[in-house]
């Protein structure tokens, strides 16, 4: 039951749609421009770098802070603290991607997932950051960098859970792997249109401006 409550709490936190709020402050619905989602990348493309940074930090912190709070509350049981943290983190991403008051049309959850990654392990976060920067610098495709980050999240979490978090081979270990896989796969699924455009060569590159 606690897991369900953590998902629900996370979902409502995720409904704090930073991109949509920032757009409304600029008298626009950000979802009507660019790629049509309320995330940091589209805000960057439509409203510029400062707006994109503000939205990224908002979406990043709304997952990072609840995850760290949950880890602290359940710190006496290391393995369960990680599992519970992932439940609230998954809830945040679901709330961000599918906000009920916006017709379930939000962002793609990359910034919020980045907050979860940092809460899990700074080593995973650093590797993800390096790969993301290199990928975007070479290809100028933010979506491709985001997809690579999710693959790294799944792979490194699967490896490190066995050696770094005190799980052993019990149920918590399997639950941790399933949750990190679910978070990563969800983000990749949200990029399905980007994947189609990447394969066809029509994906938008970073730095390309759109008409406001």
From TrEMBL:
GO terms for biological process: phospholipid biosynthetic process. Keywords: Acyltransferase, Cell membrane, Lipid biosynthesis, Lipid metabolism, Membrane, Phospholipid biosynthesis, Phospholipid metabolism, Transferase, Transmembrane, Transmembrane helix. The chain crosses the membrane at residues 6-23, 80-104, 116-138, 144-164, 176-195. It catalyses: an acyl phosphate + sn-glycerol 3-phosphate = a 1-acyl-sn-glycero-3-phosphate + phosphate. Its EC number is 2.3.1.275. One of its GO terms (molecular function) is acyl-phosphate glycerol-3-phosphate acyltransferase activity. Pfam families: G3P_acyltransf. It comes from the Bacteria. InterPro entries: G3P_acylTferase_PlsY (IPR003811). It is an enzyme of class 2 (transferase). Pathway: Lipid metabolism; phospholipid metabolism. It is found in: Cell membrane. GO terms for cellular component: plasma membrane. It is a multi-pass membrane protein. NCBIfam families: glycerol-3-phosphate 1-O-acyltransferase PlsY. Belongs to the PlsY family. Probably interacts with PlsX. PANTHER family: GLYCEROL-3-PHOSPHATE ACYLTRANSFERASE-RELATED, INNER MEMBRANE PROTEIN YGIH. Catalyzes the transfer of an acyl group from acyl-phosphate (acyl-PO(4)) to glycerol-3-phosphate (G3P) to form lysophosphatidic acid (LPA). This enzyme utilizes acyl-phosphate as fatty acyl donor, but not acyl-CoA or acyl-ACP. HAMAP family: PlsY. This is Glycerol-3-phosphate acyltransferase. It comes from Lachnoanaerobaculum saburreum F0468. The lineage of its organism: Bacteria, Bacillati, Bacillota, Clostridia, Lachnospirales.
